[in-house]
Design a protein that fits this description.
single chain, alpha/beta, 7-stranded mixed beta sheet, 13 helices, 12 strands, binds pyridoxal-5'-phosphate
Length: 403
């Protein structure tokens, strides 16, 4: 089945819900059995991990199980688990696979709260974290130790958008007995197929494109067979569970992910190409542009690009960047992304210690939403005009903080 068909059918069982097209919002703590025999059967089915089996709301209801089934199908993994946020999904997967005395390699370009979790929490349990250059490819071999249990990848990287050679990294990791855990949020389950490229555990902040409407937080972990039991057990031991109302929004988002993402890709690339030609722009960092250092890898391994990329401005002061952003009317100022609306937020690449960021100018992360790209381009033209006017007036200050 092709992905767009899978998006429509995955996780749906109308026959179980009186013919309803959508799995309803099933709210529950207690789940009653009709007799002791039925209770014993419910417990047996859950212990056997039968799909959809449950004895308590914390272990999920039909709403959660529908979403997990759909995500496992789309990712091409063994089974999935839903979490109350993307970060909860990341933290639980890492806690499940790592134990005292282990070493974990994490790309410099990982979502920074992921690194904070390893630095501040798992370090207290005797796990040693080491960051590595996302561009290393097979050279990651020199960093592998006998106790390296997990190689954590995120491609493209958060904000700086480096593309990693996942198959090369996975081959080395597996040869050394380590698991590959990936944050696959940027590509969504449609544009990167993690299990075809050697990933063992794939994670999504479903908060982004899967929910897709900026109105709920959710995370997903999808495992292969080798990692499933450990991750499932830790998820249960840590009491991780997500609310059915939020999960319903993610299931609803999933049905239109294909058409939304196609538009985010086309509009994002069009806006990126336009920005690339503007004199106020130093560089546009977008994996689908041939100027991106990871473009060849992106073409080899990815099936598309989402609407999230970075623009580097010729701006000598923060005031110029503020003038650019304040002149925009279609781009909201805020974090997160993946909703239907466009967003901008400035950031400082230097804070990712060690990142080989080659650009001098000030960086702004852009999310291109579902508005007409012509309106967005006209808006950005206003912004760049305001930036140029501010540049003509304002005194220069250093562009980047020291790492
Ligand atoms: C937003 C994000 C997360 C965290 O997801 P939340 O739902 O906000 O916890 C993780 N990874 C990436 C790449 C993200 O962009």
């Amino acid at each position: 089945m092709k992905d767009n068909t899978q998006l429509v059918v995955a996780g749906r069982h109308p026959e179980r819900f009186g013919g309803l097209v959508n799995t309803p919002i099933c709210r529950a703590s207690t789940i009653l059995a009709g007799s002791m025999a039925e209770w014993d059967e419910m417990k047996r089915a859950r212990a056997a991990q039968e799909p959809g089996a449950t004895t308590y709301g914390r272990y999920g209801t039909a709403t959660a199980h529908a979403f997990e089934e759909a995500m496992a199908a789309l990712e091409g993994g063994h089974r999935s688990l839903v979490f109350p946020s993307g970060l909860a999904a990341i933290a639980t997967a890492l806690a499940a696979l790592l134990r005292a005395g282990d070493h974990v390699l994490v790309t410099y370009s990982a979502y920074s709260p992921t690194r904070s979790f390893l630095e501040r929490v798992l370090s207290r349990f005797g796990v040693e974290m080491q960051v590595y250059d996302p561009g290393c490819g097979a050279a990651i071999e020199s960093l592998m130790r006998p106790n390296t249990r997990v190689v954590y990848v995120e491609s493209p990287g958060s904000e700086t958008l480096e593309i990693q050679d996942i198959p090369a990294i996975a081959a080395i990791a597996h040869a050394h007995g380590a698991f590959v855990v990936m944050d696959n949020t940027w590509a969504t389950p449609l544009f990167f197929k993690p299990f075809e490229h050697g990933v063992d555990v794939s994670i999504h902040a479903a908060t982004k494109y899967i929910v897709g409407h900026s109105d709920a937080m959710l995370g997903v972990v999808t495992c292969n067979e080798a990692t499933w039991n450990q991750v499932r057990e830790t998820t249960q031991d840590m009491g991780q569970t997500a609310g059915p109302d939020d999960i319903y929004l993610a299931l609803r988002g999933l049905r239109t992910l294909g058409v939304r993402l196609q538009r985010h890709w086309e509009s994002g690339l069009r806006v990126a190409q336009w920005l690339h030609q503007q004199p106020e722009v130093e560089s546009v960092v977008h994996p689908a542009l041939p100027s991106h250092p990871g473009h060849a890898l992106w073409r080899r391994d990815f099936k598309g690009a989402c609407g999230l990329f970075t623009v580097v401005l010729h701006a000598s002061s923060e005031a110029s960047v503020a003038a650019f952003i304040d002149a925009l009317s279609h781009f909201g100022i805020g974090v997160s992304w993946g909703g239907y609306e466009s967003l901008v937020i400035p950031f400082t690449p230097g804070r990712h210690h060690g990142t080989r960021w080659p650009h001098k100018g000030r960086a702004v992360r852009m999310h291109v939403g579902l508005e007409d790209p012509e309106d967005l381009i006209a808006d950005l033209q206003h912004g760049l005009t305001a930036l140029a006017a501010c540049e003509a007036l304002s005194p220069a200050t250093p562009a980047t903080r020291a790492a």
